[in-house]
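Risk register update: the risk of archive-format incompatibility is retired. Evidence:
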Amino acid sequence: MPVTSGFRASRYPRPSVVDQSPLPPYGERVSSDTAIAHRPAGLPPIKLSAPAHNGFWEIPVVYEDAHLLAIDKPAGLLTSPDRYDPDRPNLMKLLHGGIETGRPWAVARGLTYLSNAHRLDFETSGVLLLAKDRTALVGLADQFGSEKPAKVYVALSKGTPAEKEFEVDLKLKADDRQPGRMRWSKDGKKSLTRFRVLETFGGVSLIECHPLTGRTHQIRVHLLSAGLPILGDPVYGDGQRLYLSQLKTNYRPKGDEPERPLTPRMALHAWKLRVKHPVTGAHIDIEAPWPRDLEVALKYLRKYQ
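Archived output:
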């Protein structure tokens, strides 16, 4: 695997530049002040639609209390408006529209306010935490701004790392030549991600990603710099999807229908989030189950590779 400036193998030494001490690592015994995420029963599902764009979504709720709402954001939906294409549907605009028009899911929850303190990319699925009131938003914004939440992603990447655990410490900045794209630069912002290889499948790897800073596209750029672009990444990779015909030697298409990809989008999922509750002060663990497309891809990778 090519080694780039800023890339190094590691046994996960704790960096002095990032204070993670209030947030114990995943896998450790949960302390008495840590709440496992829960979902109140009996509340209607969150259904959103953008008919003009043929967009319809049922949004799973993975955590909810009086102050916070965490959802499993689907792939293919922006978190907030796109500065280059403001008319594209985005989650926050659709949620605000549902509150304003009194949709059942909003009325049942008594929602008058929702705001996000962080975001996920268009094709990234997984945990997205929202505040139900201004006090909660300020508390979350302070945490995300100081990079205290512990975040865990999973990705399917092209390539096989030489090390089972490694980290990328590479400064990032916006690419002035290509709007919407990030690049590494000596005068960029500090960016650090730790990686753990979970499984390898003949040129494809399942990688657990721990971003310790919160730069735009950080995981995507860091994996690219390590020679491991995420499958289906149209910006930092070749955009290539994974097909069953690539894995199964005697694959036969069904009729005249074109083959559908196992991974119809960029294979990146925000799996876990640990934050300090902005009101109660308890640490909470929130998890979004691995999406079906990732599970199906792994099923066939394990079977045929």
